[in-house]
Structure formats: C-alpha cells, structure tokens
C-alpha cells in the first residue's frame, strides 16, 4: 500500500507526529479499529503505573489488533487520540513518534472528561491493507 502525504502551507503545520492528510489508493481493505485503552490483555485490568505506561499499552493493544487484521503500523492512515488531560499532549506525541513509523498518518487529538475504567488515554485507528 502506498500512502500519499498531503501537505499545504495554506493550513497550519502539524504540531506533532502526524500528517495534515493521507490519501490511499482505492484498492485494498479498509479496517476501522475500535478504541484501545491501556488494559493488560492477560488480566483485563488497566495499567496504572503511569500515563506513559497506559499510552504504551494502548498502542501495543492497537498494534495487536492491526496485526490480527493482517496489517502493520505502516498501513495506519488515521489515528484519533483521546486524553483526559491535554497537558499530557506532548508526552503522548513523544511516545507515538517512537511507535508509529513515518510518514505519519493523519491524526486528531480530543480532550475528554473521562474514559472507560478510569483510563487517561485511548487510541483508535483506520488502516488500509
């Protein structure tokens, strides 16, 4: 799958590890992943050590679903991040940049009042295989 990264100077530059837009060919399979929070798969319990641990576990859970769908992180074209504390936006960006390969997918980040099980972070994705 080839991704075409869309960028224009007529809109604000990305303020993190994401692209303004991503175009993909019409062929292939589009997979819409449900949101993942930092639950440990073995226990179903929230990883509560730190915000960073929750972010890393949520991305690990997302990657497991991506792989089960037959894809890779390179094929993610859109992410949505949900944070209960937007002051941790920079930390989420740093972790995402370590996990998601470039060129980065399109992304939205949303501040929310609460997430299931008291999570501080959730990620959902769209990929094209």
UniProtKB/TrEMBL annotation:
The keyword Hydrolase applies. It holds the Pfam family Ribonuc_L-PSP. InterPro entries: RidA, RutC-like_sf, YjgF/YER057c/UK114. One of its GO terms (molecular function) is deaminase activity. The keyword Hydrolase applies. GO terms for cellular component: cytosol. Transmembrane segments: none annotated. Its EC number is 3.5.4.-. Keywords: Hydrolase. Belongs to the RutC family. This is Enamine/imine deaminase. The gene is yabJ_3.
């Amino acid at each position: 799958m080839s991704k075409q990264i869309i960028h224009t100077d007529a809109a604000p530059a990305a303020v993190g590890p994401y692209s303004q837009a991503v175009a993909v060919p019409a062929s292939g399979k589009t997979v819409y992943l449900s949101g993942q929070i930092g639950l440990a798969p073995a226990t179903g319990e929230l990883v509560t050590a730190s915000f960073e641990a929750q972010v890393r576990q949520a991305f690990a859970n997302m990657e497991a679903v991506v792989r089960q769908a037959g894809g890779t992180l390179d094929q993610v074209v859109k992410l949505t991040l949900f944070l209960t504390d937007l002051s941790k936006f920079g930390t989420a960006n740093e972790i995402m940049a370590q996990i998601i390969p470039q060129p980065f997918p399109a992304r939205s980040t949303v501040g929310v009042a609460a997430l299931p099980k008291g999570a501080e972070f959730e990620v959902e994705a769209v990929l094209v295989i």
